[in-house]
Input
Amino acid sequence: MIGSLLSNAGVWMPLAWLFVLVVTWAIVYYIRSRGEARYHKDTEQVRPFLAGHPETSKAAMHVRASNEYWGFMEALKGYYHPLIKGHTGNLNDYICWFICILAIVLVLVISVGV
Amino acid sequence: MPSEKAIKMNRIIKAIWVFNWFNSCGFTELIPVVGSRWDMERFGMIITPTPRHADVLFIAGYQTWKSLERAKRVYEQMAEPRVVLGLGACTMSGGMYWDSYNTVKRLSDYLPVTMYIPGCPPRPEAVFEACVKIFQHVKELK
Amino acid sequence: MASKEEVFLEKVSSKFEVEGKIQRERRIWLSTDKVNLIPLCTWLKGEGFIHLSALSVTDWLEEGKYEVTYHLWSYEDRILVTVKTKIDRENPVIDSVVSLWDANAQAHEREMHELFGIKFEGNPNLTPLFLENWEGPPPFRKDFNWREYVKEKYYHKDDDTERVYYD
Amino acid sequence: MFILRFVVAPIIAILGAIFVGLIIMGIDRILAARMQSRVGPPLRQPFWDVKKLMIKENIIPENAISWLFNAAPVICLAVVSTILLYLPLAGFSPILAAHGDLIVVVYLLILPALAKVIGGFASGSPFASVGAQREMVMMMSYEFPLAIIAVSVAWLLSKVHPSLDAFSLQAIATHPVWGLVKGPLGIVGLILLLVSLLVVTPGELSVIPFDLPDAPTEIVGGVLAEYSGRNYALFYLASAVKLVVLPSLLIAIFFPYGISGLFNVGAAAAGVIDVVFFLVKLFVILFFSVTCVHVLAARLKIDQLVNTYFMAMTAVSLVGLVLIVLDAAI
Output
């Protein structure tokens, strides 16, 4: 089959999927077109819903992405904390990390290789 | 031929989604309506978190000037075939706060209230009957 | 032996000329004048009175005075000190304690400003707390007749359903 | 033949999935109500909900990026229904059998959640962007056990039948995993995999304990806070179709058995029996992994959710994988 991505354990034909996607997209677009499209443009209706409060300023409403990974960092504290501590920032720490790991890899390669 | 608004309203009655703007006694009134004894979900009514999804705006309890301004903004943000229900005597005439300096006396001076439900607080049956009544008399609605 | 309230009272009256009174166990009333209110409060905060639980105002109409009371609570020795100061009623001005108990005092002072019209100097944001866009006089003053105010502002004499309020 | 497979089949698939999904949603709401000793809505309630949503105004907020805001629900529903074509439904081989396998399904499962994230960020409200951020973190955490399950099942199949194409869902369906495992170790391993997939399902469907992205009470509807009218109806339909897609994936892997063999009836009758049995299996899985869960449990915090998926469920499925490998080794 042309355009088919074959590996010895998997197969996927993106063209088939795209074609089917276009068909389903057409159906969904038809379903959507049955719905009501009108709304009161640029009245009070289009202001963001902030539990009734007026929108003070666009910048104040922006949620910074920095707290996005809070959930992740909080859950994996045990893993992230030592890692952050490890990044001391001065160069020779990093170099000694580099050398130790290099040594370990060499030992493994030699012991396995020979 | 019933007007387009009437057709739309008849569709709404089967799945009324409610946004509740409850101060004071309102919320204690919502609990039996949602609870297992009167269960408003058997009529397809559910509570929605945003006015965007809602059709009926329940306003219960007295409104101060500060909360009225927010209530107006919430009413504006609802999607069109929308209905406002004033629950309780406080929305009709200020209720027991009739001579307070900070409460709104009659809600329909500030918001297009479709129907008032008397009672302080109104019983759940009155709330359901009001929802049914709105949509039966939808043709006379302006 | 002297209870901790008396000990505390000696310490205060030695430092500031303030007339104290032990109202009952763990309750002390201190009344001082406007000038050394802030030094007294700063000293009290240093002593462990870190919690401003309430700020209330009593309106003495006959004397023409507002009595501003600060209810301070200390967690260590569990005593409630009520500092009272009398200020003039016509143009009530007092120093703000926001510098000592910042956000906590901020809300109390905004409310007292809104309800009694007291001007707290040094309070950055005295915007109304509950009575947004309020035109009438401060409603908690004793000489504010709110029945008249409501009749004139909300109800119309000619409206038949509301005529009953007027006779 | 081409037209039948690539045009007619998707249309039937999407309409059938929407129909079955909405019915299952209705049953789910009735059962949830009965568990709370409430009467619960009539069965056709979801259909009326969608019909009502179709007549409501479709508000596009001013802060929103309008084309993205409108495209997100369309993508979400379209992509979810394409997944159905790769799954062996009711014993029949997947419609696009030769064009996609288990790995494609696992990847396609990301797209609806991605469409919700795009919709959330595009709607410009702080609630929606917090919801979208939560959705991303949730996606990251439940993908891990899902991938482990896919890999371990495929490995088992390739170990026992090296000639077969390990990842093709058709092969997995015709050779049920329970038969491929020799000793009790393998059975326990498979049970652990089943448990972790059962726990991932409510996360994927964002059902109560895991419905952080659109938590009604905390972030006011979350990702769907600014949607209304027909856009919201499309998201509603997408969640209905997902109600069909997820359990049918689970059925394809763990319970692909059919009972039409017991009665020696004509091919058509056997087909009908298979479809009915498939729907019963679908419903039973949904009852345990969705209805019971969202009635009994309360919503988790985001870091608890990451803990359950990223740590607990990954560990469970890894142990399952190790047990299967040990079983095959002995």
User: Anything to note?
Assistant: The two ends of chain A are 45 Å apart (CA to CA).
